Every structure is written in structure tokens, then in C-alpha cells.
């Protein structure tokens, strides 16, 4: 039988004896070190498991570069939130309309035309999310972002040079498609290159980038009072696109994607670049295990832990020809080993050479959306898919759109009748106060876990919705505004952040594209639905709006408590192994009190709510 994968959820399952460790050290002196040791000039005796890798400047700079695409999403939302009076001329062009060269200072819009121009961004986002999986699977995560930036640049140019309402709306639609592709690809790429212990930290940059784009987009639009000024502001995302088109090709592709398309050698080099100075053996093995390998020996896909030992670098001398062939062929292998080799005992495991393991080219199945939803995949992912879908939908059902992203938002409703100039500034301040929440989440997400942040965020939003509703019923408005600020703060502590990156933490590579497409598409659909429904509800029963949102967040609190698993520091293979199958309760039962009835037993039992 094949051995189990070494290390799960941060615990090393291998038990090397002193004699085995001595053999490892001897092998380093007997055989040339062609892997991370030679490539990165580090001491093989000090190698650590890459799953324990710490902070990496390379991963951070790559994540920041990808985040420029995400900033464009927030910028595109925020720039029209406060610039309607500058861009639009809600009457036909008259003698008072002046031109800056060939471009008019204002564009004539009717109320309905402006509503369509604003809302069509979400429609484009939905279409972009639908095709994001196909694009990223065909040309790669990094290349998909590069191509998508060309689309974003085209949309920015269309808006910046718009002379008619149709021209401007077309630009919004094109840039909306780019935003949809970004929402599907950026999280997948960052999630696949981030170290295990830092996935939450790097994954949180998505929401941070959206808030930064929203904040600075609103600020720029408030100061763009001229015809030339608003054109520069709406076209500014093109600058982010140019930077990424120039620099993003210099970063490595996702190793998991390269394995998925059989570019074994490129995947090896990419993983070593991302985990400089670490042993990548166990992480490489887990990457293989997360693929749906269509082979009769699928159950025996793990390599022996002794073979993938502390250095993952020793290659026997008689394998040098194979290694040379490996180095000379980046994308097309001269040697193919169909299926994965299996081992029946330790002796057979040791005969499976390291170079041969690296040359494995299995046949891989990619699961579609319907297969994944119905559990017709190698692992039954119905429970995990349901968790991802619910969390993504909760983002919109929590009431954030009613606070910021509509002209009839609660901030505008309260302040605009009294001080029209203060309402846009209030929206800016609300966004600004969320930044400390996101930075706090960056620090806590890989320490407290995902469930703790989600439960705290949903519980806090439920309380805030009650306070907002009470203020709308009985007053004063100051209580409503304070609750709005607090609501957006706690939103960015969990609900606004975790759903974006948890998909890549619970879904294996063979179904990741399908899951990402479905969840991101639902996000844009719910964004369209809430933007249409919120004004209708406000016109009919305005005081009850946040009662409805509060009921959704309260229901979400109990759903997360009972069904959403903890993924902090857990490899995908371990999460899938524990939580595959139909929908089930993941929270552990309470512990009983100690025999003496001490309070300590009760305190420990309460912690079970935050574990899976």
C-alpha cells in the first residue's frame, strides 16, 4: 500500500528514525543537489517544509501587482457614486454647454440612461465572471490577467473619450467585463501561489484593494469638476492596466495550473521561485493529490515520505540523463510515464527515483459546474460548494449595497436633504473607517481562523442592522449614522474578505475553475438584484429595509456556525477528506463539564464553536 501524505494541518505524520536522518545527510554528500539547493544556493541541512514557509517578498509583490486589477473594480464603482452632476447634463445640449477640443464637458443623459450606464457595470461583471474560468484554464492565471488588462484599458479609453451616452455606457460595459474576469482569476492566482500559513493574509488583499479603489475613486471624482478632469478620472484604471501589462509577465505562473496542463518542469521552477529556500516536496505532492487523476491507481497517488525527505534534492547519479532531459524541455517532456507509479512497500518506494516522480504526466479530468454541484467528481464536493455559495451570496444580502453603492443609499437619504455636500464626504469617511478593519483582519485571519472572523462579522452586522432599523423608526439620525459606520467596519472584518479566498482553500484544482465561475457569477447577479430591489423596498417600507438585511445576517451566523469548516493552516486535501459528501454539520459537540463541575470545562467547550 502507498504511504499517506506527509503532514496534514501543520502536523508532521512522518516518523524518521535517527538512522534514516543519517542516511539523508549521507545522500546529500553522495549525490549532486540539483533542486532548491543548487538553484537558490542554500544549505540543504537547514531545509524546512515549504508548507511552513513564512513571509515572502516575492509573493507579496506579486499579490500587490495583481491587486492593481482589483483596485479598478472599486474605482469603477466609486467614481460614478459622486460624479453624476459633473459627468451628466440631464437636459439636451444647450448654448451653455462648452467643449474641450473635440470632447464636450458634459454628456446629455436622461435619468433612465444614467441608471443603465451605472448598472451595466454589474452586467458586464456577470458575463466576465462566466468566462473567467475558461480563460484562466486555457491560457493560465497570470496570462489571463495580462490579457484582461488589455480589455480594461480599452474600457477606460472608451469612457475617457466618450461623447455620447451610448459611448460612455459601452465603456462601462467593457470595463465591467474586465472586472468580472478579475474577480474570478485574481483570487485563484493569489490563492495558488500563497504559502499555506499565509493564505488568509494574501487573500485579504482583494477586499483591501476594492476599498482602496472605492475610496480614492470617490475622492478623485469629488475634485474632478471640469470636463477634462472627469475624463481623466474615469479613464484612470487604464494606468493600472498598463503597469500590469508591463510587469505581470515577469512573475511566475501558478504551479498548480502548470501541473494541471502537464508543464511539469515549469511547475517545478515556479514552485521553487515562490518557496525560495524551502523544501517543496510535500507541497508538490499535495498539488498532485488535488488533481483529478483519471487512472486505475488513483487511490495510490501519494509518494513515500522517505522519498520526499527533508531536502527533496538528492537525485541518484544514474538519473542524470533523465534530469538533463527534464531541464531541457520546459513545456514538452521527452519522457512520459502514464499514470502515477504506485508503491507496495518501503523497498519499492525507495526505488521510485525523484526524477521519475517529477516526470509523471497523468491524465487529468477537469470537472464542470453541474458535475461539482451534483457530487459527480472524485471527491464529493457538495458540502464545500454549498458553503462557498452561501458565503458569497451573504456578501450582498448583508445590506452593504444599501449603504454605499446606490444613489438611494441610507447615507444619501439621511444627509442629502440637509447638506448635499456632506453626503459624498460621508461615503468617503465610511470607506476610510473600513481600512483599519481590513488591516486588523490581515493580522488576525491566520491567527484566529476564518470561522471566528465570519461569526464575529455576521453577529456584529446583525446588531448594527437592529440599531439602524431602530434609528429609522424612532430616531435620531446620529444613531443611524453611527450604526452605519460600525456595520461597514465589521463587514470588512470577515464577511467582506473571507468569501473571496476561501474558495481556493476548500476546492481542489480539478473543480476550482467551476467553483470560482459559479460563486463569482452569483456575486454579480446578487449585486444586480440588490441594486434593483433596494430602491423598491425603500419606496414601500423604508424602515423595514434593514430588518430584512438583519434577518439574513442572523441566519448566516447560524449557517456558518453549523456548516462552514475551518481552513486555517489546513491543506486542501485534508479539508476535502474531512468535509466531502452531502451537507452536514461540522461543529463539534460541546464537551461536558469536568467531574468537579469546574468552569474551565465550560470555557473550553465554547471554543468548539470556532473549530471544525
Give the % helix.
Answer: 55-70%
Secondary-structure-based class equals: mainly alpha
Total DSSP helices = 29
Q: What is the CA–CA distance across the termini?
A: 29 Å
Mean pLDDT, nearest integer?
74
Radius of gyration: 27 Å
**Share of β-strand residues:** under 5%
Oligomeric state of the chains present here: single chain
The tally of strands reads: 6
Largest sheet: 2 strands, parallel
Q: Uncertain segments of ≥5 residues (pLDDT<50)?
A: 1-17, 23-45, 90-100, 293-363, 416-421, 591-607
Shape: globular
> Biggest sheet: strands side by side, in what order?
1-4
Overview of this structure, please?
This protein is an all-alpha fold and 612 residues long. Helix content is 63%, strand content 2%. It contains 29 helices and 6 strands. It has helices at 18-30, 36-40, 57-79, 84-87, 111-139, 141-160, 165-193, 199-203, 205-223, 227-235, 237-247, 255-260, 264-274, 281-289, 320-328, 346-351, 354-358, 369-373, 382-397, 400-403, 410-415, 422-448, 450-474, 477-491, 498-506, 509-540, 545-563, 572-579, 599-606; strands at 88-89, 99-100, 103-104, 107-108, 292-293, 364-365. The strands form 3 sheets. It has a two-stranded parallel sheet. Strand 2 (99-100) and strand 3 form a beta hairpin. Helix 5 (111-139) runs antiparallel to helix 6 (141-160), helix 6 (141-160) packs antiparallel against helix 10 (227-235) and helix 22 packs parallel to helix 24. The longest helix is centred in the C-terminal third of the chain and has 32 residues, at 509-540. The radius of gyration is 27 Å and the shape is globular. The relative contact order is 0.12. Mean pLDDT is 74; it is low at 1-17, 23-45, 90-100, 293-363, 416-421 and 591-607.
Amino acid at each position: 500500500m502507498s504511504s499517506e501524505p506527509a503532514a496534514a494541518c501543520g502536523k508532521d505524520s512522518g516518523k524518521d528514525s535517527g538512522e534514516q536522518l543519517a542516511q539523508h545527510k549521507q545522500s546529500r554528500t553522495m549525490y549532486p543537489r540539483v533542486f532548491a539547493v543548487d538553484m537558490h544556493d542554500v544549505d540543504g541541512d537547514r531545509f524546512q517544509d515549504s508548507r511552513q514557509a513564512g513571509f515572502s517578498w516575492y509573493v507579496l509583490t506579486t499579490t500587490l501587482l495583481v491587486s492593481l486589477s482589483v483596485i479598478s473594480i472599486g474605482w469603477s464603482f466609486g467614481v460614478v457614486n459622486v460624479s453624476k452632476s459633473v459627468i451628466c447634463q440631464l437636459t439636451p445640449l444647450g448654448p451653455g454647454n462648452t467643449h474641450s477640443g473635440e470632447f464636450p464637458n458634459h454628456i446629455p443623459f436622461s435619468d433612465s440612461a444614467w441608471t443603465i450606464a451605472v448598472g451595466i457595470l454589474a452586467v458586464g461583471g456577470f458575463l466576465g465572471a462566466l468566462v473567467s474560468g475558461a480563460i484562466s484554464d486555457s491560457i493560465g492565471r497570470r496570462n489571463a490577467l495580462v490579457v484582461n488588462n488589455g480589455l480594461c484599458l480599452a474600457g477606460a479609453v472608451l469612457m475617457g473619450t466618450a461623447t455620447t451616452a451610448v459611448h460612455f455606457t459601452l465603456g462601462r460595459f467593457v470595463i465591467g467585463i474586465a472586472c468580472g474576469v478579475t474577480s474570478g482569476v485574481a483570487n485563484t492566482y493569489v490563492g495558488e501561489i500563497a504559502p499555506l500559513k499565509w493564505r488568509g493574509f494574501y487573500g485579504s488583499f482583494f477586499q483591501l484593494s476594492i476599498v482602496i479603489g472605492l475610496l480614492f475613486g470617490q475622492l478623485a471624482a469629488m475634485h474632478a469638476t471640469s470636463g477634462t478632469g472627469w475624463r481623466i478620472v474615469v479613464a484612470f484604471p487604464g494606468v493600472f492596466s498598463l503597469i500590469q501589462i508591463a510587469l505581470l509577465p515577469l512573475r511566475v505562473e501558478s504551479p498548480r495550473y502548470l501541473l494541471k496542463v502537464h508543464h511539469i518542469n515549469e511547475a517545478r521552477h515556479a514552485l521553487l521561485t515562490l518557496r525560495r529556500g524551502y523544501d517543496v516536496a510535500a507541497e508538490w505532492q499535495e498539488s498532485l493529490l488535488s488533481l483529478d487523476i483519471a487512472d486505475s491507481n488513483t487511490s495510490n497517488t501519494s509518494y513515500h515520505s522517505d522519498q520526499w525527505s527533508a531536502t527533496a534534492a538528492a537525485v541518484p547519479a544514474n538519473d542524470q540523463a533523465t534530469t538533463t532531459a527534464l531541464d531541457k524541455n520546459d513545456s514538452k517532456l521527452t519522457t512520459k510515464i502514464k499514470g502515477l507509479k504506485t508503491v507496495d512497500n518501503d523497498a519499492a518506494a525507495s526505488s521510485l527515483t525523484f526524477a521519475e516522480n517529477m516526470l509523471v504526466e497523468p491524465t487529468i479530468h477537469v470537472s464542470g459546474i453541474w458535475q461539482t454541484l451534483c457530487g459527480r467528481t472524485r471527491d464529493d464536493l457538495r458540502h464545500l460548494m454549498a458553503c462557498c455559495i452561501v458565503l458569497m451570496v451573504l456578501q450582498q444580502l448583508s445590506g452593504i449595497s444599501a449603504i454605499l453603492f446606490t444613489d438611494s443609499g441610507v447615507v444619501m437619504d439621511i444627509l442629502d436633504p440637509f447638506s448635499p455636500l456632506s453626503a459624498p464626504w460621508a461615503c468617503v469617511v465610511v470607506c476610510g473607517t473600513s481600512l483599519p478593519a481590513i488591516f486588523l483582519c490581515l493580522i488576525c485571519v491566520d491567527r484566529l481562523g476564518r470561522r471566528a472572523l465570519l461569526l464575529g462579522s455576521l453577529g456584529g452586522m446583525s446588531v448594527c442592522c437592529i440599531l439602524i432599523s431602530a434609528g429609522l423608526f424612532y430616531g435620531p439620525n446620529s444613531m443611524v449614522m453611527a450604526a452605519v459606520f460600525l456595520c461597514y467596519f465589521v463587514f470588512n472584518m470577515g464577511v467582506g474578505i473571507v468569501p473571496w479566498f476561501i474558495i481556493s482553500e476548500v476546492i481542489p484544482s480539478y473543480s476550482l475553475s467551476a467553483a470560482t465561475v459559479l460563486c463569482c457569477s452569483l456575486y454579480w447577479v446578487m449585486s444586480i438584484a440588490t441594486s434593483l430591489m433596494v430602491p423598491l423596498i425603500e419606496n414601500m417600507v423604508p424602515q423595514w429595509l434593514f430588518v430584512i438585511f438583519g434577518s439574513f445576517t442572523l441566519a448566516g451566523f447560524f449557517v456558518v456556525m453549523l456548516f462552514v469548516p475551518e481552513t486555517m493552516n489546513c491543506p486542501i486535501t485534508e479539508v476535502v477528506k474531512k468535509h466531502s459528501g452531502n451537507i452536514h454539520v461540522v461543529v463539534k459537540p460541546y464537551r461536558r463539564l469536568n467531574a468537579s463541575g469546574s468552569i474551565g470545562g465550560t470555557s473550553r467547550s465554547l471554543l468548539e464553536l470556532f473549530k471544525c
